Amino acid sequence: MLTRASTFLYQRPRLILFLLLGPPMIYMAVVYLGSLFLLLVNSFYSIDDFSGVIIREFTLKTYTQLFTPANREIFVRTASMAAVVTFVDALIAFPLAYYIAKFSSPKLKTWLLIAVTIPLWSSYLVRVYAWKLILAKEGILSWFINLLHLDGALAWLLSFETIGGSSLALSPIGMFIVFVYIWLPYMIIPIQTALERVPGSLLDASSDLGANPLQTFRNVILPLSFPGVVAGSIFTFSLTLGDFIIPGVLGNSKFFIGQAVYSYQGTAGNIPLAAAMTIGPVVIMIVYLLVARRLGAFDAL
Amino acid sequence: MTNPSAPAIRFDQVSRYFGEVKAVDHVDLEIGDGEFFSMLGPSGSGKTTCLRMIAGFDRPTSGHIHLYGQDVSDLPPYERDVNTVFQDYALFPHMNVGDNIAYGLMIRKVSKPERMKRMDEMLDLVKLSGYAGRKPSQLSGGQRQRVALARALINHPKVLLLDEPLGALDLKLRQQMQVELKSIQKRVGITFIFVTHDQEEALTMSDRIAVFSEGRIEQVGTPAEIYERPASAFVAGFVGTSNLISGDVAKRITGSDQTFSIRPEKIHLGSSGAEIDGNMVSIDGVVRDVVYLGLYTRYLVQIDQGNDLVVIEQNLKSTSMDVLSAKGQKVRLHWHKDHISRVGG
């Protein structure tokens, strides 16, 4: 019976393909793309200002609300934070990933990769609140800075209006530090994977042809691992764009996109505006990927 | 610093240990200017480590390497006037063929027109004109091989290192590339150091060969010397097929119990009791097995309990019927005294 069933399937490769791919494809289409589509549909509805009832008619009115000065500021603030976090994460992650991929012994590599991912084992919320304590006015970081007699420098840094605040925990700088920390593993792993795929003989070849280590880095290592950097930046950039916990727990009272979406769909009950605001990051990511492709980030894939 | 009349490469008591493993063990070697020199040996014999030390990817644990008289032992690869053709070609996948070839010139900031001109010359030399715009992934194995060669030669290195470059090619292509490599070497006049485990390849192309075994050089010589006069049992066995004869049997043939080797094609197969002239030695045996191989026939002749000699005879006049009927017959093997190589031990 079992033999006959397997023979039946063996002779019908297309049926096997359908059975294997069908369920996940249906799941993707219904749950994932379906909800994205509903989001898009909702963003074209509007809300009746008086009654707060959603009017299910196609309109661009909600989108025009995105361009009020307050909302524009939210977009600029969030996107700038995401860009800076991504850039700094890439700077920190690259040397680490390079060491893990090219220099560490197999045993050390395993341990280092575990060390990189260990933070992901504990709750994100716990880590964010831990950072709130670390960055607090009486926290360990301030204590350490005082120990180094750098408290003047910290006060000076915090005195800047756009990035400062009354303490690290209540400033965009603190938020930035936590964002960089929280998303770092998502940058290290893709870069390490990309570097792992660059054969050692290419590095030998480059230096054999007269390139010093810096030239080899610029002409061979960086272009070949750049898809990894882009992959990592997609994580760090989009995760920062959508996050509403870190700006809520740390930082000042100025909104980020995630917080805005959260409050519009919650207390304000303005689902269409929340949906429209969510489409914002999606559009930003699409533009980002198109630019990356234009710059040749995926040529070496 | 360098001296054009000095040997291209000189190894002075060079060793490379990996922990307990002696990959290269006190090697002395001189390679002359303009030579096509092969390093031949089984895998793990130290030949590739020697090549990597010349290129600078690896440094000797002790000893010195000289390039035209200059001690380069501690120079990084990018400061040595040596280029390498890698076993896996190591072409840069994100650059097209032209950029790959011109890489060394680009690094040395040679002007673009000059770069293009020399790149075209190189493409011409390796018969790939018109391929400059292709990506390495669009090329066949043989074509990648040529690009790797062009990329190394464009820098006019003092010495070109080739690390088993033909290993990944099929037989026909390999034989064609052997001829081509040799002719390119003649044309550019650069010293080639060629690492291979294929003895036929080494014999075909080289001016001289060094046979490596277990981190040491067993013998250095011309292909003919290596083949006709193997200095050790290892060389006799590794380069071509050889019959090693020792002990009592050796004494019965030559009067001395010193081990010697004799090549299968040097042995003549005579009928039992045939007259042997004074310059020849002989021994009687029984044909145990016959393998007909078209061009030639391989006989296995038992000359003693458990002692077989391989004999090869070309099928000049005989047909397969004749040779196969020889099985089980008594024969007298004889060969010229000059063809005996004493291998010590």
Provide a descriptive summary of the structure in words.
Chain A is mostly helical and 301 residues long. Chain A has 14 helices and 2 strands, in the order ααββαααααααααααα. Chain A has one domain: MetI-like fold (Orthogonal Bundle), CATH 1.10.3720. Chain A has helices at residues 2-10, 13-43, 61-66, 69-103, 106-117, 124-135, 140-147, 151-158, 172-196, 200-208, 213-242, 246-249, 257-265, 271-294, and strands spanning 46-47, 54-55. Chain B is an alpha+beta fold and 345 residues long. Chain B has 2 domains: 9-238, 3-Layer(aba) Sandwich (Rossmann fold), CATH 3.40.50; 257-342, Beta Barrel (OB fold (Dihydrolipoamide Acetyltransferase, E2P)). Chain B has 11 helices and 18 strands.
List keywords for this structure.
heterodimer; A: 301 residues; mainly alpha; MetI-like fold; B: 345 residues; alpha+beta; OB fold (Dihydrolipoamide Acetyltransferase, E2P); five-stranded antiparallel sheet; 18 strands
